[in-house]
From TrEMBL:
Keyword Signal among UniProt keywords: no
Record-linked Gene3D superfamilies: Vaccinia Virus protein VP39, Winged helix-like DNA-binding domain superfamily/Winged helix DNA-binding domain
SUPFAM superfamilies, A to Z: S-adenosyl-L-methionine-dependent methyltransferases, Winged helix' DNA-binding domain
Record domain O-methyltransferase C-terminal: where: 225-373
Organism: Cudoniella acicularis
Residues annotated as catalytic: H302 (proton acceptor)
One Gene Ontology term from the biological process aspect of the record: methylation
GO molecular function, one term: O-methyltransferase activity
Record's protein name: O-methyltransferase C-terminal domain-containing protein
């Protein structure tokens, strides 16, 4: 280690931080690897006092500064062009001194760049210049903040049992809501539901898509079933259908119906996309699309404890055509040891909101087994942080 040209390494990292090369930005795998490695290196280099500064102060300050900037529509104000402090004070009507402190903070955290006495929006914060995403961040933040705050006392009150009842998690403790799971809360709060769906539609941007992990196009070309009404693909609990849209976009030549299913209040807001059919369907009820080639579930099972997962899969098992239909589960496949920060963040998220979990391969195997299904193959994420795919078939 001591033989490493450290000065050179540091200077290269500083250059990348200022202006990441296009070749790096274009390669999701390399970009992720470097991002994770530099974050891990940063943590390994922290002194104990710096850990406390980060955990107790810097992390909340970063989140809160971004939230205030969203409230001031500061990112939208910087969407098209750089602006001076005076121009931004005029647009936002905020006190000039306060705004200067906020911008300095945003710059320190990389949300804006200071250039020629002006401020420029960082490329990685562009999404927040879109009011749809800014509003989604605000409404979801207002919900997640109190829920996370409630988690320690909620777990203490259960004597640290693993949460397993979606009607009794930190969310219910935070909002004093009894007998309503997150989805029931969403159904009563369309702004919040839309906020989560909006964020979810980008959650995995940069993560591998199913077509990056396996030759799904070749699998979907299989018409050996001879069905008149050929359904190639059913995206079960597909939200706004962004994964199906990306798949159709990648392989426009693929034949058959491509269907996105979700609950009515979600599917009614899904975009109309040529070649993709939106369908209202509750996945705990009988699956109306029988004998499709592929039933795809992305980030669906992680929303539920084990028993409802088994029920969802059993409904699919009933309509699968033996020797033809397959299930593709696109989720974090958490290793027993060495899990990524994103995997454990999502795991805590699921625990807090839904008494649910991200799962190991073994836990998925148990759930599939209980539903009369078996794992055919696991396709791991190449970057070690994104979700992988479990291909499952009927257990004969
Ligand atoms: C975490 S999101 C994943 C959405 C999408 N698959 C994706 O990858 O972005 C879970 C989805 O399951 C949907 N959902 C929850 N309960 C459902 C039910 N009973 N029937 C159908 N969809 C449901 C939610 O509305 C939400 O869109």
């Amino acid at each position: 280690m001591s033989s490493l040209p450290l000065e050179e390494l540091i200077s290269q990292l500083e250059t990348i931080a200022r202006d990441p090369p296009d070749s790096l930005v274009a390669s999701d795998t390399l970009r992720s690897r470097l991002r994770i490695a530099s974050r891990n290196a940063s943590r390994s280099l922290e002194k104990p006092a710096e850990v406390i500064q980060r955990v107790l102060l810097a992390q909340p300050v970063e989140s809160i500064a971004i939230r205030i900037a969203v409230d001031l529509q500061l990112f939208a104000a910087l969407a098209d062009d750089k602006k001076s402090l005076d121009e931004l004070a005029q647009t936002t009507k905020a006190d000039r001194i306060l705004l200067g402190r906020l911008l300095r903070t945003l710059s320190a955290f990389g949300a804006v760049v200071e250039a020629d006495s002006c401020y420029v929006l960082s490329a990685s914060y562009k999404l927040l210049a879109d009011p749809k995403f800014a509003n989604a961040l605000a409404s979801c933040g207002d919900f997640l903040g109190p829920a996370y705050q409630a988690l320690p006392s909620y777990l203490a009150s259960t004597k640290y049992q693993n949460p397993s009842d979606p009607n009794n998690t930190a969310v219910q403790a935070a909002f004093n809501t009894k007998d309503k799971d997150l989805f029931a809360i969403f159904a009563e709060n369309p702004t919040l539901a839309q906020g989560f769906s909006t964020l979810m539609s980008t959650w995995g941007d940069g993560n591998s898509l199913i077509q990056d992990l396996l030759p799904i196009n070749r699998i979907l070309e299989d018409r050996s079933d001879g069905f008149d009404t050929h359904v190639a693909w059913v995206d079960v609990g597909g939200g706004y259908g962004q994964k199906t849209i990306a798949l159709k976009h990648a392989f426009p030549e693929l034949q058959g119906h491509f269907i996105v299913q979700d609950l009515p209040h979600i599917i009614s807001n899904a975009p109309e996309t040529q070649g993709v059919e939106n369908m209202s369907h509750d996945f705990f009820t009988e699956q109306p699309i029988k004998g499709a080639k592929a039933y795809y579930l992305r980030q669906v099972l992680h929303d539920f404890p084990k028993e409802p997962c088994v029920r969802i899969l059993k409904e699919l098992r009933k309509v699968m055509k033996s020797g033809y239909s397959k299930i593709f589960i696109h989720e974090q496949i958490v290793p027993e040891y060495g899990a990524s920060v994103w995997a454990v963040t999502q795991d805590f998220n699921m625990m807090t909101l839904l008494a649910a979990a991200e799962r190991t391969g073994e836990q998925f195997a148990e759930i599939l087994d209980d539903a009369g299904l078996k794992i055919v193959r696991i396709y791991p994420a190449p970057d070690g942080e994104s979700e992988g795919i479990i291909e499952a078939d009927i257990m004969e």
